[in-house]
């Protein structure tokens, strides 16, 4: 059995990463890694599903213990990907999505060059701000911090393998789904060719 493919999805807060990933998961064929974070749990979020919520001391222990595939500090909180769960899913042949910010995404690419990086952009900054405001999850100060962070984040976009706009949700999900299916298909073709080439020897 082939190992699963690893996809990393980033984009400024409010672009629609969470919404897009939920749609991709519902379509099947791909599984989401659950991150750990020190930020507070928000309304509508579930421990072990949205995040594993933890305190700073425990998070630092996990870093020191080598339990994180990657981690980053975003707006004063730690966020990180527990390594064991991702490795297990990949070994089982499942395709995995990490929905993480660019520091972490680029760290994953350095460790695992086979990872496919997808950056989602909003149609405009006005739309981005409206999505953050309408979501109603952060206060005005946090929204401003997230919009400020968006500048550095978008400066990293050209380091990604794909840049996809989230204007009409269904179109964005279709586009990412096609990218993922294409990557999986080509990987399988290469593996089959390699097997054939090795058998010839
Ligand atoms: P992120 O995970 O990138 O921070 P979310 O998935 O929470 O973003 O989306 C931010 C807000 O924008 C949510 O209220 C979501 O329902 C909305 N949203 C996401 N994608 C679209 C879209 N294509 N068109 C309109 N609203 C969207
Ligand atoms: P939020 O607070 O909106 O849930 O997440 C804030 C930012 O942290 C988003 O850009 C999100 O993609 C990112 N993020 C979530 N989990 C992780 C993670 O495990 N590692 C890294 N590096 N970033 C993460």
* CATH architectural name of the domain at 6-34 and 94-200: 3-Layer(aba) Sandwich
**Rg from Cα:** 18 Å
Poorly predicted runs of 5 or more residues: none
The CATH C-level class name of the domain at 6-34 and 94-200:
Alpha Beta
Describe the biggest sheet?
5 strands, parallel
Determine the CATH superfamily of the domain at 6-34 and 94-200: P-loop containing nucleotide triphosphate hydrolases
Into which percent range does the helicity of residues fall? 40-55%
| CA distance, first residue to last residue | 22 Å
What is the overall shape?
globular
Ligand species: adenosine-5'-diphosphate, guanosine-5'-monophosphate
Strand order of the largest sheet: 2-7-1-8-9
Order of helices and strands: EHEEEHEEHEHEHHEH
Number of strands: 9
What's this model, at a glance?
This protein has 7 helices and 9 strands. The protein is of the alpha/beta class.
Question: What would your notes on this structure say?
Answer:
- By secondary structure, the protein is of the alpha/beta class.
- The protein has a domain at 6-34 and 94-200: Rossmann fold (3-Layer(aba) Sandwich).
- It is 48% helix and 20% strand.
- It has helices at 17-26, 56-64, 83-91, 102-111, 125-135, 140-155, 169-200, and strands at 6-10, 31-32, 35-37, 51-53, 68-74, 77-82, 96-99, 116-121, 162-165.
- Helix 1 (17-26) packs across helix 7.
- The longest helix has 32 residues, at 169-200.
- Bound molecules: adenosine-5'-diphosphate (ADP) and guanosine-5'-monophosphate.
- Adenosine-5'-diphosphate is lined by residues 11, 13-19, 131, 134-135, 166, 168-169.
């Amino acid at each position: 059995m082939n190992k699963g493919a690893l996809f990393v999805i980033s984009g400024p807060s409010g672009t629609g990463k969470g919404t897009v990933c939920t749609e991709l998961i519902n379509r099947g064929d791909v599984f989401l890694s659950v991150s750990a974070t020190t930020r507070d749990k928000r309304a509508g979020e579930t421990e072990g599903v949205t995040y594993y919520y933890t305190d700073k001391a425990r998070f630092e222990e996990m870093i020191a213990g080598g339990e994180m595939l990657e981690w980053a500090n975003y707006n004063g909180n730690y966020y990180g990907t527990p390594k064991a769960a991702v490795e297990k899913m990949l070994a089982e042949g499942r395709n995995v999505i990490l929905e993480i910010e660019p520091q972490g995404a680029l760290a994953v690419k350095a460790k695992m060059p086979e990872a496919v990086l997808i950056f989602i952009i909003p149609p405009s900054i006005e739309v981005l701000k409206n999505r953050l405001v309408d979501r109603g999850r952060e206060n005005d100060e946090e929204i401003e911090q997230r919009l400020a962070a968006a500048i550095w984040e978008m400066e990293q976009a050209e380091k990604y393998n794909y840049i996809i706009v989230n204007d009409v949700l269904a179109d964005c999900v279709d586009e990412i789904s096609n990218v993922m299916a294409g990557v999986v298909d080509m990987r399988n073709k290469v593996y089959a060719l390699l097997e054939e080439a090795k058998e010839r020897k």
